[in-house]
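Structure, all two chains, one model.
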Amino acid sequence: DAGVIQSPRHEVTEMGQEVTLRCKPISGHDYLFWYRQTMMRGLELLIYFNNNVPIDDSGMPEDRFSAKMPNASFSTLKIQPSEPRDSAVYFCASGSAGVGKETQYFGPGTRLLVL
Amino acid sequence: GENVEQHPSTLSVQEGDSAVIKCTYSDSASNYFPWYKQELGKRPQLIIDIRSNVGEKKDQRIAVTLNKTAKHFSLHITETQPEDSAVYFCAASDSWGKLQFGAGTQVVVTP
């Protein structure tokens, strides 16, 4: 059974460029979460979806960040334009209301470096 | 919102000894408390969790205790092994079901 899948695993880009991170949740999970991890701020929840609908985006740092979930098996997190302070590891996690949405399983993460 | 504090930030133990990590939370409505283990360069992995209707839960060498009155919960690792070396995160689910993570504890098990 495949876990959460994220791509790319590593991304290096220059300041001002658009970055798109992708996530495929575990099949059958109806909750999807995007997190950012840095040494300074730890693990921060950016946004989460339930049944493809954004429920809480209060963690999204600013308008440069946007997230979509067009269907149950795919989500994107976009940064436009990117800045060096966006450098971090971005994790996607999924959960299921059936076992408690709080039980979240993380993907391998995307390590983003903005030069 | 929920606030989770985790102590200590680093913990060094001899192989075979026990390790204890403590967390406190602020939202009395929180009812779910997972623990994640993160090895260097890897994803956080759920190792054990507990819900508010249970005071203690054990899985082999790992146990978690919860004191709802005092709003704190702890992770206990017995008979530590080098492969237990990692960063451990506690978390609490707030009244909206979102997880708030602690800052993490770097555990180093020395042979």
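Chain A is about 0% helix and 55% strand.
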